[in-house]
Amino acid sequence: MHLKNQSSSSRDEVDLVGGYYDARDNVKFGLPMAFTSTLLAWSVIEFSDSMKNNNRLENAKDLYSDPSYSTKLLKTAMEVFDFADRYKGSYSDSLGSVACPFYCSYSGYHDELLWGASWLHRASEDDSYLAYIQSNGHTLGADEDDYSFSWDDKRAGTKILLSKGFFEDNIQQLQLYKAHSDNYICSLIPGSPNFQAQYTPGGLFYKGSESNLQYVTTSSFLLLAYAKYLRSHGGVASCGTSTITSDKLVALAKKQVDYILGNNPAKMSYMVGFGPRYPQHVHHRGSSLPSLHVHPAHISCGDGFQYLYSNSPNPNILVGAIVGGPDNRDHFADDRNNYQQSEPATYINAPFVGSLAFFSDETTGI
Question: What is the pLDDT of residues 2-34, one digit of tens each?
């Protein structure tokens, strides 16, 4: 596919072949894809030591290991952040007709500015971004504690990331974010004085009826990242008058990971292709339509609906994809038309990479 920009003076052709589609359709939405890329990179940053026993780490390095290209990316990211800060607003205010209702910026743009400044501070070591965080954090959601983390709402993840600066770099200005991170962690821990989260009878973290596993994979990643920071510095999470150890965080994350992989009331693995029982009717165009090898003739958009409504299992197994998952009673409908449960997405999978890397390492003691 080539995109042609026609102007009075020039015409540029941009090759759009390759890359990821965010979910079931052949569309590349920017906001969830940026989140996907960031969580994949964060997984490598935190858990690369657990990826050395196979070629996964080398594959990841192929994306970032060219120094001149990395420098260009950082410079461009700084320019984009400066533009976003100068001309504040949600991207879907202008692109609502194509981004909504799928990927509107429901939480607004404040969390993205704080998220961007936090990553730029780590990547550039430029203290101007730390000053930005200190000056603007209160108005960008830093004081608002919430127990969800997603492509749309970055607040919880930003606080965990900023707490790393306090733990590892001893940046005292970021101590506040250790306290906020504790609040987030404590909200997830059953029995904690600050407990707010909801869990299914089978023990799955439950946040929303559509693609709930996105919240499970993101919260599991943050639990493990924070557990790593605590372990490395002999710390605990403070929950009122109680304290929560890193082992408690790891145990909760493990329960969520095990549930996704089949240790649940339905004995269903929600990762396609993993285990003896997994979803057969995944809501995904490439998986549900026949391949060119089997059906070389053109299939029009209208003709494709027969495969959507078919009762037959998907002909192409989407190995490794994690679907939306069960409802709040641990019930799962293996039905393509129930996209809320059967649709996979890159932003569900991306945080799971770090969690699997963590648990694949025998040194974790799990």
Answer: 444 444 344 567 777 777 888 888 788 889 999
In the set 180, 281, 283, 284, the catalytic residue is: 283
Classify burial at 323, counting beta carbons within 10 Å of its beta carbon; exposed 0-12, middle 13-18, buried 19 or more.
Answer: buried
Beta carbons within 8 Å of 162's beta carbon, 6+ residues apart? 118, 133, 174, 177, 181
Adjacent-strand bridge partners of 15:
2
- 283 assigned to active site: yes
Q: Which residues contact 227 (CB under 8 A, 6 or more apart)?
A: 246, 247, 249, 250, 253
Catalytic residue among 144, 146, 334, 361: 334
* C-beta of residue 140 within 8 angstroms of C-beta of residue 184: no
Contact in structure between 316 and 348 (CB atoms under 8 Å): no
> Nearest 10 degrees: CA dihedral of 67, 73, 76, 82?
-110
Assign 206 to helix, strand or coil: strand
Whether residue 156 has pLDDT greater than 90: yes
Q: What pLDDT, on a 0 to 100 scale, did the predictor assign at position 158?
A: 96
pLDDT in tens, 300-310: 988 989 999 99
CB 342 within 8 A of CB 324: yes
Q: Where are any strands of DSSP class E within the chain?
A: 2-6, 11-15, 198-199, 205-206, 237-239, 242-244
Tens of pLDDT, residue by residue over 295-333, are: 999 999 889 899 999 999 999 999 999 999 999 999 999
- Smallest Cα–Cα separation from 24: which of 331, 323, 352, 349? 323
Asked whether the beta carbons of 88 and 108 are under 8 A apart, the reply is no
**CB under 8 Å to 311, separation ≥6 — which residues?**
none
Catalytic residue status for 343:
yes
Q: Six-digit token pair at 214?
A: 């996105």
42-63 pLDDT, tens digit per residue, is: 999 999 988 877 677 887 777 7
Kindly report whether the global pTM for this prediction surpasses the value 0.85: yes
Q: Which DSSP state fits 271?
A: B
Q: Is the pLDDT of residue 175 over 80?
A: yes
Q: How far apart are CA 342 and CA 345, in angstroms?
A: 10
> Looking at the chain, how many residues does it have?
366
